[in-house]
């Protein structure tokens, strides 16, 4: 059974870069999309972006200038970097697997496995 | 961006009730609509994908319908473990893959 675990600093200073890693266990990282989603305390979910194991990425346009995602298939890990952070970037950050399913000849994606989430606070 | 709205934002219901949550997209997204359930302090859980396909392991009391811009999540007989917040999410080709604001289902 595939499991995901986020890791990284829980506290980041304003203007610095937030760096998180998601480790995939119980299965291969290959041939899937891997996503990052965040959730400020008491608020809704925001899709940050996703990366395919080939390295191809899709980013949220509102964050695109600050986001970099990468994948290390040898370590079964993928990563998120968010630069120039502010207090507005304080949130629980989740990683998730975005898996396709074929329905009536079309592929539909849904995030079927999630990490437990990690809280990142931006503060000096 | 495609904007997603949900109604109601919250509802109170009793065990055994039939519950319906609506999600609307600001433009047509065909059937590229997912539903997630989130309990406090936990990660979201995929319930429905492609608007009406039940994710493996999800109880059959959950169902989804709709296409284009209007979608519905129905819980046919609410169980104690169903009290949670429900989010819709569009996965159409237009980025970002936005979530709705959520619908909180609590105990009456």
Oligomer: heterodimer
Biggest sheet details of chain B: 6 strands, mixed
Portion in beta strands of chain A: over 45%
| Coarse morphology of chain B | globular
Mean pLDDT of chain B: 97
Number of alpha- plus pi-helical segments of chain B: 0
In summary, what is this structure?
The complex is a heterodimer of chains A (124) and B (108). Chain A is mainly β. Chain A has strands at residues 3-7, 11-12, 18-25, 33-39, 46-52, 57-59, 67-72, 77-82, 91-103, 106-114, 118-122.
Could you characterize what this model shows?
The complex is a heterodimer of chains A (124) and B (108). Chain A is mainly beta and 124 residues long. Chain A is built from no helices and eleven strands. In chain A, strands 2, 4, 5, 6, 9, 10 and 11 form a seven-stranded mixed β-sheet that branches. Chain A has a four-stranded antiparallel β-sheet with strand order 1-3-8-7, with no helix packed on it. In chain A, a hairpin with a 2-residue loop joins strand 9 and strand 10. Chain A is globular, with a radius of gyration of 14 Å. The model of chain A has no long low-confidence stretch (mean pLDDT 96). A six-stranded mixed β-sheet of chain B has the order 2-10-9-4-5-6, with no helix packed on it. Chain B has a four-stranded antiparallel β-sheet with strand order 1-3-8-7, with no helix packed on it. The radius of gyration of chain B is 13 Å and the shape is globular. Chain B starts with a strand and ends with a strand. Classes of the chains: A mainly beta (124), B mainly beta (108). At the A-B interface, strand 5, strand 9 and strand 10 of A face strand 4 and strand 5 of B.
């Amino acid at each position: 059974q595939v499991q995901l675990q986020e890791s990284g600093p829980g506290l980041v200073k304003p203007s610095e870069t937030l760096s998180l890693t998601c480790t995939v266990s119980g299965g291969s990282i290959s041939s899937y999309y891997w996503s990052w989603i965040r959730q400020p305390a008491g608020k809704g979910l925001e899709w940050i972006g996703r990366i395919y194991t080939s390295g191809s990425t899709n980013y949220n346009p509102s964050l695109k200038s600050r986001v970099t995602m990468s994948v290390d298939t040898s370590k079964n890990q993928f990563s998120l970097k968010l630069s120039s952070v502010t207090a507005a970037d304080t949130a629980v950050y989740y990683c998730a697997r975005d898996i396709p399913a074929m329905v009536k000849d079309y592929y539909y994606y849904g995030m079927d496995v999630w990490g437990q989430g990690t809280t990142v606070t931006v503060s000096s | 961006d495609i904007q997603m709205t949900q109604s109601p934002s919250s509802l109170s219901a009793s065990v055994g009730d039939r519950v319906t949550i609506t999600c609307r997209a600001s433009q047509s997204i065909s059937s590229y609509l997912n539903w997630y359930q989130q309990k406090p302090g936990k990660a979201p859980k995929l319930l429905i994908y492609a608007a009406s396909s039940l994710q493996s392991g999800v109880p059959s009391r959950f169902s989804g319908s709709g296409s284009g811009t209007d979608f519905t999540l129905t819980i046919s007989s609410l169980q104690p473990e169903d009290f949670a917040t429900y989010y819709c999410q569009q996965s159409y080709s237009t980025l970002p893959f936005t979530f709705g604001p959520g619908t909180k289902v609590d105990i009456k």
